[in-house]
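_Per-residue structure_
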Amino acid sequence: MGAAMRRIQAGNALSAFGLGFTVPYLYIYVATVRGLGSFWAGIVLGVFALAALVALLFTGRVIDRRGPLPVLVGAAVAAAVGAMALGLATNLVAVLGSAALLGAGTAVMQPALATMIVWSSSPTSRTRAFAMQFFLQNLGLGIGGLFGGQIVDESRPSSFVLLFAIEAAMFLVLAAIALSVKLPRNAAIADARPKGGKGGGFRAVLGHRAMLQLCVLGFVLFFACYGQFESGLAAYGTEAAGIEPSTLGIALAANTAVIVVAQFLVLRFVERRRRSRVIASVGIIWTVAWLFAGYAGLGHGSQTMATAAFISTYALFGLGEAMLSPTVAPLVADLAPEAMVGQYNSAFALVKQMALALGPFVGGPMGATLHGPYIVTFILFSLGITVLALRLGRGLTLAQDHPAHAAHASRVVAVHKSEQEQVAA
């Protein structure tokens, strides 16, 4: 990695570390520590997600007009103010306002960071750059959550103030690192631009068929995986499979461990294959994961076997995530025109945020009460990932679907032309 990429990745890891301190404990903090109850805690989480959605509607165009650096710095500062305000908030209005600021700030940072990675990488190095980002994010979140768990104490509100102060400090560190980055600009892929698109903003995204297909695919991916982790799948595990709450923590740890261990092991496999087929294989892996979950809750086996199957579900999800990280985000970048990288990244982040918001809303009640239909539904969603990915692949160029092979082919052609020129001379 170049100096710019190293600094971007370092800032990304530190901000994830800060998020890990508070994300697992936000519900407990609002409901119990500030005494607002479960209803208002749910409303606060809803405001957090809604603020993110609203902010992402305008982020892409600002990134493309002003560049990702000022947007990232502004978002990091806003998130730091929101985090510190949330830690000090003692009434409902203050909690709602600071949660909205924190949600908007953290959401805007995603496409800004992604655009900075695109600018600091080439089409052939982009796969590894986004794999590194995902690896560091998960490592940072995991370590942050581990340290935060040692500090947090429901009987001491000051312990939560410390958590939010650490989070705010990490966001400010991200802003400081970002200001030290000198961004290069790399040329876009020549044959990756939308054909016949008119207008700008979201109209251009909607007019680009391959990008629209990728957004639909992304919604299904995030809805069927991340949107179920802490809601539907957790409810299903405790109600249908009899999983202890402490085991949910073990399952999430297994998910993170598989990502950390497998990320660079699967990278060579991913680089040698078409992106669309890699995504299609993730759908098959997640289908197996949901079958394991079905056995855990509906298989009538021993509690030990049910627990092992449930943990395996999260582990298999982690394997699929490790395969997606170097595949989906680079594909978004390679589909975008050079002047609209921020808009495309923001559009995809918006789709992801919508899936994360709707996932718990749909999956939570189903996982808690409709155990059989819940498993069948998400098996079908996973198979749908495979179908959608294969259909997407038919509309991609070789440079978009398999950049490493395209780069190799172009080098071979260049060498062949050089030989012909020498013969002619």
About this structure: The mean pLDDT is 83. Residues 37-66 form the longest helix (30 residues).
